[in-house]
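Troubleshooting entry. Yesterday's outputs looked truncated, so today I'm pasting the complete records for two proteins to confirm everything comes through intact. If either block looks cut off, that's the bug. Protein one:
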Amino acid sequence: MSGMRQQLRDNLVALTSLAVALAALGYNTWRNEQTERNRNVRVAGIELLQEIGSLQQIIFYAHYSAGDQRGDPRMGWADALTINDLATIMPADVMREAAELKSAWEENAESLVEDEGAFRRIDGAIEELRQATLASLRALR
């Protein structure tokens, strides 16, 4: 028994160093994963905001500039689908708002040009998604 205590005391510095090294390795790995996740969310959020802006331009041209090709609702489908795809990388509230926008787009895109209500529903869903995206970007640490 005393031989075991003697070995433990003789190797205490080495065992402490090993414990500290393992703890540091674990923390470093966790921190790197958090940093990478934040980086992915940041990039996806910025791309998402760009797509949101593009879709907003399409609906404004469609609603306020009748006959302008930049306002063709068919062009908005690519933005709506890209927004939905980018949102999968984002936090849950952004994914939920992106799904709401896609649903609003599916239901109202055809009547966007002539129906004020359709325009308001899509525009409202875009604004909700924009605010959720900005909040998730502000929350990054």
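Protein two, checking that the full record survives here as well:
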Amino acid sequence: MNFKREVVSMLDDVLHLEGRASTFDEDTILLGSVPELDSMAVIAIISAIEERFGCSVEDDEIDGAVFATLGSLIAFVQRKADGK
């Protein structure tokens, strides 16, 4: 599975970025740089991760570091999808 492609697609869908996420690279800062990424969007993204990748995300697993960059979000999703 291409986690980068899947996470970018998920962000584009959940945040209604209309293709803008396709310009993101792994160093793209998310929190504070993507206006659509607010606290409600974080909840929607967590739900999308659980649904798309068939995993469960616990409250204590989420902090600002997960959403710091596209790369940190991809790494988190990959760990969760791999069951780690």
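Both blocks look complete. Sanity check on protein two: Residues 3-81 form a domain with the Non-ribosomal Peptide Synthetase Peptidyl Carrier Protein; Chain A fold (CATH 1.10.1200.10).
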